[in-house]
Amino acid sequence: xxxxxxxxxxxxxxxxxxxxxxxxxxxxxxxxxxxxxxxxxxxxxxxxxxxxxxxxxxxxxxxxxxxxxxxxxxxxxxxxxxxxxxxxxxxxxxxxxxxxxxxxxxxxxxxxxxxxxxxxxxxxxxxxxxxxxxxxxxxxxxxxxxxxxxxxxxxxxxxxxxxxxxxxxxxxxxxxxxxxxxxxxxxxxxxxxxxxxxxxxxxxxxxxxxxxxxxxxxxxxxxxxxxxxxxxxxxxxxxxxxxxxxxxxxxxxxxxxxxxxxxxxxxxxxxxxxxxxxxxxxxxxxxxxxxxxxxxxxxxxxxxxxxxxxxxxxxxxxxxxxxxxxxxxxxxxxxxxxxxxxxxxxxxxxxxxxxxxxxxxxxxxxxxxxxxxxxxxxxxxxxxxxxxxxxxxxxxxxxxxxxxxxxxxxxxxxxxx
Length: 417
Description:
Layout: H1 3-14, H2 31-58, E1 83-84, E2 89-92, E3 101-102, E4 108-111, E5 117-120, E6 133-137, H3 142-148, E7 155-161, E8 164-169, E9 173-178, E10 184-189, E11 200-205, E12 211-216, H4 225-231, E13 236-242, E14 248-255, E15 258-263, E16 269-274, E17 279-284, E18 289-295, E19 298-305, E20 311-318, H5 321-328, H6 330-339, H7 342-350, E21 354-361, E22 367-374, E23 382-387, E24 393-397, E25 402-406
Parallel strand pairs: 1-22
Antiparallel strand pairs: 2-25, 3-4, 4-5, 5-6, 7-8, 8-9, 9-10, 11-12, 12-13, 13-14, 15-16, 16-17, 17-18, 19-20, 20-21, 21-22, 23-24, 24-25
């Protein structure tokens, strides 16, 4: 090889341009995508915060942290599903029949959402609940209605003694109705108590007729009752009215939605249902002290004697994790009541919580048995269970449009053992 060619080869090898170039590739930037996601997320958070603030500040009331929290009770042990609440005979066309009472002639009485009280007569062959429906009252007590600016009353708890029907009316207070003449007599006006009654709910009468025990559920009226649950106050009360002296004395206060009341068989104790805490409270009337708090899995409504020395407790709303979460978080509750109507608040309360349960308890507050209707399949959410004189079980509801009567063999009370 010539020297010239060797020199040329050496120059080519040493020349930088002769070396192969390595192309460097950099990953494509995703900053634009991340930026878009961040902006969308930020907008969503801002909207949620804005809605939350709107609900919080437009809420009509300030929600509170409860002084006592509910005890979570599961459907096991004495509350386990053993007995089905079988479907019975329905008496339709009765909007929200909260309570049922039976007189000595087999007539049934119930109060309706429009304020009327209805009598359901026996059939011609004596079958209870199978006869004609008759209006007992129109639902309006003129003088009281005019003074309170209420269009009608709302009869809830009912009791019968002889020919007198005793009525706990959410709007009017306590009055009686003569079952023969239909004459109405006011016993306790809402202003007879200080602070005034807001939501008279249930009552019971001593056997001699001297004492009437009745509950005032909350400082909220029936039209705003859901606020009472969501706000978190325990301002319910129970009173005793002496029919001879006309004096009213308080038996218990600071109750969480005081609902059904029932005298014990010896009339030494009073059972009180606290709906918002799912509790049946037993009060010694001699001392006005609570001797037992029975925690149950449902938000119960009324309580009635079985006729065998025991008591039926009924309800149709099962306590859920959602309810427990709301109870423990007053800020969330305040946002909720600021955003939702009363109707929507009730639907939220019922969310995945429809469950009818009828419990039989004894005077010590022990559970004897339970009857279940999951998802309220056979009945609208229950308010009361009462044993009729023919042994059958009558069921009422606050949200449905009927009364149901269960065959005697399908719901037999154990009774005192």
